[in-house]
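Exercise 3.2. Students should predict the tertiary structure of the chain below and write it as structure tokens, then compare their answer with the key that follows.

Predict this chain's 3D structure.
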Amino acid sequence: MRQYVVDAFTNKIFSGNQAAVCVVDDWPDDALMRSIATENNFSETAFVRPAPDAGDSTPGAGSDAPDGAGSGTAGGAYELRWFTPEGEIDFCGHATLASGFVVLTQLEPSLAEARFSTREVGVIAVRRAGDLFQMDFPVYELRRVEVTPQMEDMLGARVLEAWRARDLVCVLESAQDVRSLAPDLDAIARRDELLVHVTAPGEKGSPYDCVTRSFAPKLGIPEDPVCGSGHCHVLPYWADNLGKRELVAYQASRRGGTLFGRVAGDGRCVISGAAALFSVAELMV
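Answer key:
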């Protein structure tokens, strides 16, 4: 099995969010995929296989690559699954970017678009957009919830607003409040939501419309370095509050990452980012 490690939402290695992308002929057992994700210990490991009806989809067709090396031609049509160290999840933005990067730069570099069929969110397209890779995602419909003392104790910060969909979004007063946050991860893990995002407007004079951090201890990820699916919560919120459709977002984790968003108003959000290849390996499984 060939595995690519890609740093997503950055144009240089050692920043952004790491994702492993494993290219397979057919789905391994779920237990093996989870073991690989646990061994990698990244926030996500993606598994990609050519779609069954993609024509000559045998990885290695037309080359001397070993079976499973992922050098075949699938016409850009693939299936995609995502695993954290704790198991399979329904959606991951940065590992989708990494998967699109692998297809469009390593597997089928002549193509401008890769299409990924997923189990929960339908077909996701990843397109070249200059030096970036562009993805069209569904947005999460947020509903406002009461700010509770437990939320503020959990974060150790004053929360101006709280919103909920798959994840909890807490709005803080300033970007510095977001950057300096030291939350209680055990308390976050006890919440019903999958992740907790904290966000605030970008600093005056900066290129960023918003600054965000994302915490996912329930998934074995204390802090997600850059969360694409989280920005399907955050970007629609800031689009409405700032009165603009196109935004630049910064994920203020230790590694950091930049996301370019366009909220179309039709239940979709286009998120673009750069990516950098860190390594290519053969897994002995």
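Discussion points: The helical segments are 30-40, 93-107, 149-155, 175-179, 185-189, 231-242. The first helix runs from residue 30 to 40.
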